[in-house]
Write a structure and sequence with these properties.
This protein has a single domain, classed as 3-Layer(aba) Sandwich (Beta-lactamase). Helix content is 30%, strand content 15%. The protein has eleven helices and ten strands. The chain has a six-stranded antiparallel β-sheet, with helices on both faces. The chain is globular and about 55 Å long.
């Protein structure tokens, strides 16, 4: 496994994980229709699931099931860009205008770095769309989008703030533009670069960037969105709605494997991994496609989370990558699972029980 060795000091800070029974109890407490998780502590691995895979059935959520990973895609995209930086094919402080001339108003003053850390000020494409339970939303389920038309919709709106780099404002438009820049630099799509540079070398066999296909291949839980006071199955969805900002399908195993490789220094030079961990604004919690937060026991975890409408995913690890937790849920909207997932992450990272997994 591509997992960095933990230091003795780190072991003193981060206590041992819960027993399998306690981990299952914690996952059962996540607010969702269904949930699945993988917890890693060094060479020890626990996988579990909770709830049902499909409303109206008693079928269990497949422990190794696939799900839409949403904005965790951004970390993969950012890693590709930073590899290109290491290869001296692009610079973080290149203006967007250099790679996408005439596309972005004020593009001469917005840098690649500012796209990656969400300090560009560009309007979020997502905010131009109807969202459930708006009746107009459901017609978008199988619609194919191009990045160009998404970007055009976003840039028709004024920027959220006038001075790039001065503030943090999360915008999916940033990563749609980064995807286009990757193609300009390499001659291949962001999906092809992720496949070649990350998915294949790391053996992420359950991870795909599905293009226009609305299906999740292989075992998976069904996902739902609100409609007419109830829930409607939205498992099938044309993923071009998310594009480079969030179209990836993955598994808990694959996401843990990816973040272990990333944080373990196997994918980027140390200076660029440090840049990835540097917030775009003072005291921020988002760097270059990577986010972090401090758990209840003050241990910082790095990773990302993603919202893909009918699926939500969370993948975090201690800085040494020894202890990891990835959780995917099919939320019972409008209930928000964030707080209950945070409690599970705290349980994994913080609570000492003395029991082996």
């Amino acid at each position: 496994m591509l997992v960095a060795l933990v230091t003795a000091a780190a072991m003193a800070v981060v206590p041992s994980v819960n027993s399998p029974q306690e981990l299952q109890q914690g996952l059962d407490g996540v607010v969702a229709i269904g949930a699945l998780a993988e917890v890693r502590d060094g060479g020890q691995v626990w996988r579990g699931s909770s709830g049902v895979a499909e409303l109206g059935s008693s079928r269990k959520v497949p422990v190794a099931g696939r799900f839409r990973a949403g904005s965790i895609t951004k970390t993969f995209v950012a890693t590709v860009v930073l590899q290109l930086v290491a290869e001296q094919r692009i610079r973080l402080d290149d203006p967007v205008q250099r790679w996408l001339p005439g596309v972005v108003p004020n593009g001469a003053n917005i840098t690649v770095r500012q796209l990656l850390n969400h300090t560009s000020g560009l309007y979020d494409f997502k905010d131009t769309l109807p969202m459930p339970p708006s009746p107009d939303f459901y017609a978008l389920q199988y619609r194919t989008w191009t990045a160009a038309e998404q970007i055009e919709r976003a840039l028709a709106q004024p920027p959220v703030f006038d001075t790039p780099g001065s503030q943090y404002d999360y915008s999916n438009t940033n990563y749609l533009l980064v995807g286009e820049i990757i193609e300009k630099v390499t001659g291949r799509t962001y999906a092809e670069e992720i496949e070649q540079r990350l998915i294949r070398p790391l053996g992420l066999h359950g991870t795909t960037l599905p293009g226009t296909s609305p299906y999740i291949k292989g075992p998976h839980p069904h996902g739902y969105v609100p409609k007419d006071g109830g829930l409607v199955d939205f498992t099938e969805l044309n993923p071009t709605l998310f594009g480079a900002a969030g179209d990836m399908i993955s598994t808990t195993r694959d996401l843990n494997r990816f973040f272990a490789a990333l944080l373990g220094g196997h994918l980027l030079p140390a200076r660029l991994l440090d840049a990835m961990k540097t917030p775009g604004t003072p005291d921020g919690r988002y760097g270059l496609g990577l986010s972090w937060h401090d758990t209840a026991c003050k241990v910082r975890v790095y990773g990302n989370d993603g919202d893909a409408l009918a699926y939500q995913a969370y993948s975090f690890a201690t800085e040494d990558a020894r202890r990891q937790v990835t959780v995917a849920v099919t939320p019972h909207l409008p209930d928000n699972p964030d707080a209950s997932v945070d409690a599970f992450v705290d349980r994994v990272i913080c609570r000492e029980t003395g029991h082996p997994m």
